[in-house]
Amino acid sequence: MLKAIHILGSSPSCCCTIGCFSLPYRLNKSHSKFYFRPVYDIASKFINTHSLGYQSRKGCSIFGAFQMSHNVSDGPSVSLPPTSSNAIQSARSQKINFCQRCGGATKHEIPVGEEKMRAICTLCGKVSYENPKMIVGCLIEHENKILLCRRNIEPSFGLWTLPAGYMEIGESACDGAVRETHEEANAEVEILSPFAQLDIPLIGQTYMIFLAKLKKPEFSPGPESSECRLFALNEIPFDSLAFSSMLVTLNLYTKDRESRGPKFHYGVINKRPGTGPSDIHAYSLDHQFKC
């Protein structure tokens, strides 16, 4: 499921209508594996949080520039500039050396009428396009606790995560989140509402996390989990989470619970290039919107 993870901004163009996520109807109730060794261990904590350009409009809180800064323990501070989408696309296209249609060798050029580097077959002329992967999952509330799974696979073996994984062809985001929860935690859940969309441009992933509740208080580890457990807010193992996306999601959730309840969030997680999955603090959270 969630096997290619977190290795590796600018205009706030989202409008309030998108951010508020007004649902016209209730959701139906029935609803390549890579691992990179970290450059160094991150033993840091949040040391500075600031937001700029705060504006409130029609119930939406808009952060024109929101950033969490992190320091590496016993080392220099980490500066995390916004990610260049063109640079990322160019680097990714260089990895496509053979045509998926005919097997011919590819060349890397900018096609006529386009702006980004693509892999183009030297035999049949097919242009290869890469698109982001959608990862869906559930943040499950039960008796003022949330359900986490301890990973039984790499990367981030033995660390905690929300049940989540890649959405499959032929299913909706809600269907995928329900399926992943059943596969990883043997839990039957009911989707309540969307909670967060988090984009990670550097690795071509978008997370869609839904708030959900257990249909019955039964859960157990699936094949990719070694343990499933309910955590109170003050028990969440923030130092033992598997990925930056999980850290961001759970931070947003705990802050919502401490204020006036869950909201819908959008944000861009800009990972620092060269860091591994275990470097969960090596990121900035930019362009955050919430309703």
Fold and architecture overview:
14% of the residues lie in helices and 34% in strands. The strands form two sheets. Strands 1, 2, 6, 7, 8, 9, 10, 11, 12, 13 and 14 form an eleven-stranded mixed sheet that branches. It has a three-stranded antiparallel sheet with strand order 3-4-5. The longest helix has 15 residues. The chain is elongated, with a radius of gyration of 20 Å. It has four helices and 14 strands. Strand 1 and strand 2 form a beta hairpin. It is an alpha+beta fold. The N terminus is likely disordered.
Task: Please give a handful of descriptors for the protein shown.
291 residues; alpha+beta; 11-stranded mixed sheet; 3-stranded antiparallel sheet; disordered N terminus
Q: Give the H and E element order.
A: HEEHEEEEEEEHEEEHEE
Q: What integer is the average pLDDT?
A: 77
Unreliable stretches (pLDDT < 50, length at least 5) are: 2-83
| Helical percentage | 10-25%
**Which structural class do the helices and strands define?**
alpha+beta
Quickly count the helices. Answer: 4
Compute the separation of the termini in Å.
30 Å
- Tell me the overall shape: elongated
The radius of gyration over CA amounts to 20 Å
Report the biggest beta sheet as strand number plus sense, adding barrel if it closes. 11 strands, mixed
> Number of DSSP strands?
14
| Share in β-strands | 25-35%
